[in-house]
Amino acid sequence: MNKVILMGRLTRDPEVRYTQTNNTLVATFALAVNRRFARTGEERQADFFNIVAWGKLGEFCSKYFKKGQQVGIIGRLQTRNWDDDKGTRHYVTEVIAEEAYFAEGRRDADASSTAFDNAFGATAPGGVDTSAGMGSDFEVSASDDLPF
C-alpha cells in the first residue's frame, strides 16, 4: 500500500503548468512538515516534501493555497527519473496529492503566513532550496506530457 498523509505549511505559493498534449492542469508546491519530536535545547526540525496535484485538485490548490498556510495532503509517493541534455540522470521523489484540506482557520492562516515568512524567508532553514525539481528552471520537453 502506498499512502502518505502530511500536515504542514506551504513554503511558497503553488505553481501552475499545463501538459502539452491534453492541456491538463498540474500544480506543484512544497510542504514543510515539522518532525514530531525536538531534542532538548534544539530547534524543532522540519522535512520538506514536493507535492504535485493534477486536474481539479491542482486547480483548487492553486486557487486557495498560499505560502505559509497550514494544509493537509493525502496522496501517494512517486519516484521518477529523466536524463537531461548532457546525459545526466536525475531522480526525484514527490507526493502525488489525491486529497487536500485546509488545516487552520482563515484568521490563523493570515497570522501564521507572516510568522512563516519571518522564520524561513524564501528558503528553508540551512539554505536548502525547497523547490528542487520544480523551479522555473524545470523545462517541459517537446514530448507529449510532463515527465511525471
Tell me about this structure.
- It is built from 2 helices and 6 strands, in the order ββββαββα.
- The longest helix has 15 residues.
- By secondary structure, the protein is α+β, with helices and mostly antiparallel strands.
- The chain has one domain: Beta Barrel (OB fold (Dihydrolipoamide Acetyltransferase, E2P)), CATH 2.40.50.
- Strand 2 and strand 3 form a beta hairpin.
- Strands 1-3-4-6-5 form a 5-stranded mixed barrel.
- The two termini are 20 Å apart.
- It is 17% helix and 39% strand.
- About 16% of the residues have low confidence.
- The radius of gyration is 16 Å and the shape is globular.
Give the topology:
Elements: E1 4-10, E2 15-18, E3 25-34, E4 46-54, H1 55-64, E5 70-83, E6 89-102, H2 106-120
Parallel strand pairs: 4-6
Antiparallel strand pairs: 1-3, 1-5, 2-3, 3-4, 5-6
